[in-house]
From TrEMBL:
This is DNA-binding transcriptional ArsR family regulator. GO terms for molecular function: DNA binding; DNA-binding transcription factor activity. PROSITE patterns: HTH_ARSR_2 (PS50987). Residues 1-94 form the HTH arsR-type domain. Pfam families: HTH_20 (PF12840). The keyword Aminoacyl-tRNA synthetase does not apply. InterPro entries: ArsR-like_HTH, HTH_ArsR_DNA-bd_dom, WH-like_DNA-bd_sf, WH_DNA-bd_sf. Keywords: DNA-binding. The keyword DNA-binding applies. Gene3D superfamilies: Winged helix-like DNA-binding domain superfamily/Winged helix DNA-binding domain (1.10.10.10).
Length: 113
């Protein structure tokens, strides 16, 4: 059975939504106030706040509050577990495909398994 990492699941859940990905893309340019993030989405502020909550729970953003203004900033290091998992999967599948290629090459040459 596959090992399940709850943090990785939170991360992929957060990245699964296009609105959240667009928010992260915007935050890659620099910190932004919640109202600035909400504008381009066309969503109501409570909905955007729920999206931000998911991103914050996954560790992808950090928020600060100064008076009535809540500012969000991206935490790019939080993507490292996803990168590691994807790299592991890539290595696994590349090894499998290399073995399949060697097998097919051998069969095509008329060799034994």
């Amino acid at each position: 059975m596959a090992k399940h990492d709850p943090d990785l699941s939170l991360l992929f859940h957060a990245l699964a939504d296009p609105t959240r990905r667009s928010i992260l893309t915007r935050l890659a340019e620099g910190p932004a106030a919640v109202t600035d993030l909400a504008g381009p989405t066309g969503l109501r502020l409570p909905t955007v706040m729920r999206h931000l909550s998911v991103l914050e729970e996954a560790g992808l953003i950090a928020t600060t509050k100064d008076g009535r203004v809540r500012t969000c900033a991206i935490r790019p290091e939080a993507l490292e577990p996803a990168r590691t998992w994807i790299d592991e999967q890539r290595a696994l599948w590349e090894a499998r495909l290399d073995r399949l290629d060697a097998f097919v090459t051998n069969v095509m040459k008329g060799g034994n398994q």
